[in-house]
Amino acid sequence: MNFFPWLTIIVVLPISAGSFILFFPRRGNKVTRWYTLCICIFELLLTTYAFCYHFQLDDSLIQLAEDYKWIHFFDFYWRLGIDGLSIGPILLTGFITTLATLAARPVTRDSRLFHFLMLAMYSGQIGSFSSRDLLLFFIMWELELIPVYLLLSMWGGKKRLYSATKFILYTAGSSVFLLIGVLGIGLYGSNEPTLNFETLANQSYPVALEITFYIGFLIAFAVKSPIIPLHTWLPDTHGEAHYSTCMLLAGILLKMGAYGLIRINMELLPHAHSIFSPWLMIVGTMQIIYAASTSLGQRNLKKRIAYSSVSHMGFIIIGIGSITDTGLNGAILQIISHGFIGASLFFLAGTSYDRIRLVYLDEMGGMAIPSPKLFTMFSILSMASLALPGMSGFVAELIVFFGIITSKKYFLMPKILITFVTAIGMILTPIYSLSMSRQMFYGYKLSNAPNSYFLDSGPRELFISIAILLPVIGLGIYPDFVLSLSGDKVEAILSNFFYR
Prior knowledge:
Layout: H1 6-19, H2 29-54, E1 63-71, E2 76-82, H3 84-103, H4 111-130, H5 134-143, H6 145-154, H7 160-187, H8 197-201, H9 207-224, H10 233-240, H11 243-268, H12 270-296, H13 301-321, H14 325-356, H15 372-385, H16 392-406, H17 412-441, H18 445-448, H19 459-477, H20 480-497
Antiparallel strand pairs: 1-2
Helix pairs in contact: 1-2, 1-4, 2-3, 2-4, 3-4, 3-11, 3-14, 3-19, 3-20, 4-5, 4-6, 4-11, 5-7, 6-7, 7-9, 7-10, 9-11, 10-13, 11-13, 11-14, 12-13, 12-17, 13-14, 13-16, 13-17, 14-15, 14-16, 14-19, 14-20, 15-17, 15-19, 16-19
């Protein structure tokens, strides 16, 4: 047992420090921005320190565990702990939130509330990734819904209220299934509620009941991931949200669904996962093709990137469905990789909108001439999105492919078919990525326009772009950094359940 409450401090610090923002003077935007940024940087440094000095890589068990009785009335515990599966998403959350705070600098209306909501979301996300109690996981899962709803409905485009309402209906509706699943598993077979992940991991259920639980959790995580056909809230939300909110949505929020699939559906309900995994593979393959084809038809720049996000999430679903060490490691690497790439593309799309006030691709053109730095960064990160060798996306997708091929669960023909169809999806990705760059940056439309003079990327924007680009290239060259964290845990999940 760890004596210093590292994880409690890491989870509680952003929202509690953020509460002081509400006492700042109304006009002090600069003070609010710097204060929030300092909290984010301090939190990221604290997390990195705790993980570097107090986390043993070669141990697949839960570390930095904390267990405090919270509500005596019905045995509710504040249980936190991390393992190789949660450490990557927590560090990703810290990194992307810090950059999103820096990206939110142009927000001046109700700046105090905006920054407080970002910090509240930060706490909820880290809490979800480090919870070791099912009910606590649910509470943290819900905690970040309200900040996202307010960030969408108050700082967004013309249809922001429509997209915010759609978001809350989908996500709150799916949370009902999550709550029913949590209570069902917790109350099954005993008078005392059992909500501890470790205890539940060793519990077995009748097949029909396990399948029922599995479907409930799957619906909740499918909305968040998003898995087709429950994805329609995502393009609308991304199309209307401010780009710093888009960074948090694409970089972290979608990853919570994938994390839940591995943490709960795979780890706690292995037999049902074994039954459903072929369907996950089929849905993941369809998602890659469907979202890539739909992306090509989008006129709205942010919606095109949103559909590309949905397409890339298909690889995570296939990796989870493959039930192999390689496939699951590939899915975890894709979670981290897509977190960086998705956030960076939305950031660059947002900064280009700040300059030209256009969102439709067929109205753009010729941006490469007045803004060469923006053009360079956008081109490099579009290449990362289309899985160029040397970038993180390529390695992650390649490992998922190896996972499909080496899976012992499936016959040869289905494996060949899934690999072939997924490869078609990878061919569609360059088509929509490159046509997006062509429509935005080439030609002469904007350079001939009367108000064509606008500034190129400034130091702040270049810093954010390069800060995201470095880990994308770093993971592309040395993916072992993530795989060494998750490898032992993945082996433990699969050997405990699927091979016994």
